[in-house]
Design a protein that fits this description.
30% helix; 13 helices; 487 residues; 4-stranded mixed beta sheet; 7-stranded mixed beta sheet; alpha+beta; Ribosomal Protein S8, Chain: A, domain 1
Length: 487
């Protein structure tokens, strides 16, 4: 990651993705994307800061002319005494604190092991310039632009799996628990659900270290009826009991047609779609609900009464991977608000309420207040339904559940999974539904997420998250190279 800034000058490139190719040998590479704007081809090969070889056509309004780099670079108008604590804190206040150059670049400073890397605000830049990078203590005249996605890192999936499992094992997880939590997180990352991906895996690690999650808990499993299964996670994750009972659930569903599996006493489930998807891989329709500690209001002006309370649905498809739909009852995942606060970005006003019950665009106020349900009171009704179903086996109501991100007490919440064999109702149902989904897709209906494949060789993670993983593993990130001339 530390090599990226040396590839950047004031005029580009548009994006630099650092490719982590082989951690054992230390060899790395970067992918440089010059321009993704549509229109007449433009470009050039720059041999020095004062030389440009044009090509492809005249510069258009969507791309600045790539000529000589001006001698004067943007300067931060904040005095050094004011700028220093902002740089040290890594907070986005720098952008809104009066820095003209940084305000024009639309940047938000974020913490990074090699200094401070800036990332673009949601609205992008106002003058077409790349965000800037300012190392701690650097003179404002030495500010160097950075690409809008310089923190993206392409990580080999096999290395990521091994690292995540090692971090979990070190925190006290049983090997099976470490494998299942990692599988769940990788599943989420592969489908673009980063909020319950690797970053949430680190929530599990912290929970084990601080005592609110037992990474070696052995669940109590019962089978009160031929088509009913029940488990008490005993302060562990819900994945363990599901893994142990999956063969019996699948066999019972194919025999009985319908099976219910309710669980209590668990930490939060991560990606609920991972559970239902695995049922669909066995030819079953999977339906799931889960509760979480109270983070969401029932509507405007309310306090926290519900969790984000997700629901998931998976359908086997003929000749393809199952269709899985997985969504929270809240307008947005709580982790998304936490990430916005860490980046110093604002949030939409319909995401959360502040502690006084008023809609807010300040993520810090939203974290102190409550999330909002999707679709107003209809979303709140869904959250209530999910909570009532998920607590069938004795899981705590959201209002009674301990926080998942602090303290030493398990949330002890519940989940419900329903497995249905469609072949017992209609042997042709899977083919019929698959044909119908194809017809809907041909009409432009988005019937499944675009990023829905398993077994990828590489995954893209934020550089900050990769740095956190490296830190947890006791590895020291490489020092940044000295400033170099633009390419």
């Amino acid at each position: 990651m530390s090599d990226a800034p040396s590839l950047i000058d004031q005029w580009g490139p548009e994006r630099v993705v650092v490719v982590v190719s082989d951690r054992r040998t230390g060899m790395r590479g970067v992918l440089v994307i010059d321009n993704t704007a549509r229109g007449t081809g433009k470009g050039g090969t720059r041999m020095s800061p004062a030389l440009s070889v044009g090509g492809g056509g005249p510069p258009g309004p969507d791309r600045q002319h790539r000529g000589p780099v001006p001698a004067a670079r943007p300067r931060c108008r904040l005095d050094a005494a004011t700028r220093a604590p902002l740089a040290r804190s890594g907070r986005g206040a720098h952008r809104r604190g009066g820095c003209g150059a940084c305000a024009r670049a639309g940047t938000t400073l974020v913490a990074h092991p090699t200094g401070l890397l800036s990332t673009p605000t949601p609205t992008g830049t106002t003058d077409g310039r790349s965000p800037v990078t300012e190392a701690p203590g650097a003179d404002p005249a030495s500010v160097r632009p950075a690409p809008s996605a310089s923190a993206d890192v392409l990580v080999p999936a096999a290395d990521l799996v091994a690292d995540c499992q090692q971090i979990l094992l070190t925190a006290g997880a049983d090997p099976t628990v470490a494998r299942l939590i990692t599988e769940n997180a990788i599943y989420a990352e592969e489908r673009g659900h980063a909020a319950v991906g690797v970053s949430h895996l680190l929530d599990h690690v912290d929970a084990m270290l601080e005592g609110r999650l037992d990474g070696a808990a052995e669940p109590v499993l019962t089978h009160p009826a031929p088509s009913v299964f029940r488990a008490d996670a005993r302060g562990g994750v819900p994945h363990t009991a599901f893994e142990a009972l999956l063969p019996r659930i699948v066999a019972a569903a194919h025999l009985q047609g319908l099976v219910a599996f309710a669980q209590s006493g668990a930490y939060t489930c991560g990606s609920l779609g991972w559970f239902t998807h695995r049922l669909a891989e066995h030819g079953l329709i999977g339906i799931g609900t889960a509760t979480s500690p109270a983070l969401m209001a029932a509507g405007p002006s309310g306090g926290r009464v519900f969790g984000t309370n997700p629901m998931a649905f998976s359908l086997p498809r003929a000749g393809g991977a199952p269709l899985t739909l997985d969504q929270a009852s809240s307008a947005v995942a709580w982790v998304r608000v936490r990430e916005a606060a860490a980046r110093g970005e604002q949030i939409p006003a319909d995401w959360a309420l502040d502690p006084t019950g008023r809609p807010t665009t300040d993520p810090a106020a939203g974290l102190a207040g409550a999330l909002l349900p999707f679709g107003g009171h209809k979303g709140a009704n869904i959250a209530l339904m999910v909570e009532l179903l998920s607590s069938l086996a004795g899981g705590r109501w959201s209002m009674d559940a301990a926080p998942f991100d602090r303290g030493a007490v398990s949330p002890a919440v519940g989940t419900l999974l329903i497995a249905l064999d469609p072949a017992l109702l209609d042997e042709e149902y899977v083919q019929r539904s698959s044909d119908h989904l194809e017809r809907l897709a041909a009409l432009g209906v988005r019937v499944a997420p675009a990023l829905c494949t398993s077994g990828r060789s590489h995954l893209t993670l934020p550089g900050l998250l990769v740095a956190q993983l490296e830190e947890r593993l006791g590895r020291t990130p490489a020092s940044p190279p000295p400033p170099s001339a633009p390419l």
